[in-house]
Amino acid sequence: MVHERRVVVTGLGLVTPLGIGVEASWKAALEGTSGIGPITQFDASSLPVRIAGEVKGFDPSPYIEAKEIKKMDRFIHLALAAATMAMEDSGFAVTEENAERVGVIVGAGMGGLPAIEQYHKAFLEKGYRRISPFFIPMLIINLASGNISIKFGAKGPNSAAVTACATGSHSIGDAFRLIQRGDADAMIAGGTESVITPLGIGGFAVMKALSTRNEEPGKASRPFDLERDGFIMGEGAGVVLLESLESARSRNAKIYAEIVGYGMSCDAYHITTPAPEGEGAARCMKAALKDAGIGPEQIHYINAHGTSTKYGDELETAAIKKVFGEHAYSLCVSSTKSMTGHLLGAAGGVEAIFSILGIRDSIIPPTINLEKPDPECDLDYAPNRAKKRDIEYALSNSFGFGGTNACLVFRKYRGI
Question: Which residues does the entry assign to the active site, renumbered to this chain (predicted)?
Fold first, then answer.
């Protein structure tokens, strides 16, 4: 059996509808700020959904050379920004000596949809010569990882998870495994997404998945609330730097938290609806706890998938009760999607970071807009206000279309 190495988080990077940068996003989350507003990236007036969680005022130029910007779609811009923040935050340097031991796993759920729409239109109107020669690398999901590796010279394992809304969590979990078993010493990992486009919004709208509370965008994302009417699409990126404990200690790095558990499962039930009683989600949480070597009663906080959909919220709550029993009523659950919207492939990366920051600051971010609780959702969701609580272990849940599930367990690092 391979000796499993301990893995810690030493760098964080966030670009969200709440702000650009980790502390800006975290401060807004703790204040219960909504990042949801009218769509400005295209004319949504003909659509039933005209609101989203856009990243406002984002400029890629501090993170990407000017001549390279036009070769990438926005999801890659956001990924590079978040990865740059994480690397700068960590103080980790990729060198000739360690490059082959540093890897990247940053995924997306849908990739370069804006580029597809733009160049399909150009092709129909003016022919194939109007397609950019960079069109294919603009849209391919693994080019987020590819461009990050090129920027930092990371020559180790390079991959991209593509598991819908579980992408960010699978990326971090897979990176954790690579370091744990000795295939890398450091990994840049997380998720990114930017598909606030006519097809992106229109596609989810015809599924009746999105909230149509267009007149009250700040109140539209309301997980666990009886009057919720669907999720809100968001965009952004959440990227962490993971390192082996030995690597972090050798350079006296700041350690945010330790990652100790990773669970994966599939519902094998339906393409979009969770399995009855949240059975697949429950198995995933149990797998993460088992991997962490802890009992359910040791978890203090769950960052829920909590999308603000009827079945999603109710079945996740049922799954938590199934796994945690009576302790479900003692721990605290919250959905930061109430503020960011649902960042699809980026959600798991962003929410892992919120979980880590909760551990760091002994505070639980709120679930805003929880005004009339759904009777089926009867746990402590930190309604409307952040809650001070010492967190030893936090669990971050991500569940995606296709029934794919990922759960991560983080632990407060005690220096031992």
Answer: 165 (for beta-ketoacyl synthase activity)
Beta strand 332-334 with 301-303 is parallel
Q: What is the pLDDT of residue 3?
A: 65
Q: Are residues 117 and 230 in the same domain?
A: yes
Same domain, 384 and 293: yes
Q: Are residues 77 and 191 in the same domain?
A: yes
256 within domain boundaries: no
Position 415 confidence tier, pLDDT thresholds 50, 70, 90: confident
Contacts of residue 144, Cβ cutoff 8 Å, sequence gap at least 6 = 75, 76, 79, 80, 106, 107, 108, 160, 192
Same domain? For 240 and 342 the reply is no
Which residue(s) pair with 106 in the sheet? 190
* 165 belongs to the catalytic site: yes
Q: What is the largest CA-CA distance in the chain?
A: 64
Crossing angle, helix 279-292 and helix 310-324, to 10 degrees?
A: 40
Q: What is the pLDDT of residue 22?
A: 98
CA 235 to CA 175: how far, in whole Å?
22
From the CB of residue 414, how many other CB atoms can be counted at a distance below 10 Å? 8
Task: Give 103-155 pLDDT, tens digit per residue.
Answer: 999 999 999 999 999 999 999 999 999 999 999 999 999 999 999 999 999 99
- pLDDT at res. 1: 42
SS3 (DSSP) at 214: coil
- Give the residue numbers spanning the domain of 149: 7-250
Residue 1 lies in a domain: no
Q: Annotate 13-64 with DSSP letters as a single string.
A: EEEETTEESHHHHHHHHHTT----EE--SS--TTSS--EEB--TT--STTTS
Q: How many domains does the chain fold into?
A: 2
What is d(CA 308, CA 310) in angstroms, rounded to the nearest whole number?
7
Whether 84 and 228 map to the same domain: the answer is yes
Instruction: Give Rg (Cα) of the chain.
Output: 20
CA angle 32, 200, 269 (to 5 degrees): 85
Name the pTM for this structure.
0.98
* Helix 347-361 and helix 167-180, axial crossing angle in degrees, nearest 10: 70
* Nearest alpha-carbon partner for 261 in 306, 298, 312: 298
The per-residue pLDDT for range 320-343, each reduced to its tens digit, is 999 999 999 999 999 999 999 999
Task: Decide the pairing of beta strands 236-244 and 257-266.
Answer: unpaired
**Residue 185 belongs to a domain with what CATH number?**
3.40.47.10
β pairing state of 404-411 and 257-266? antiparallel
Residues 59 and 140 in one domain: yes
Domain limit, last residue, from 210, 227, 250? 250
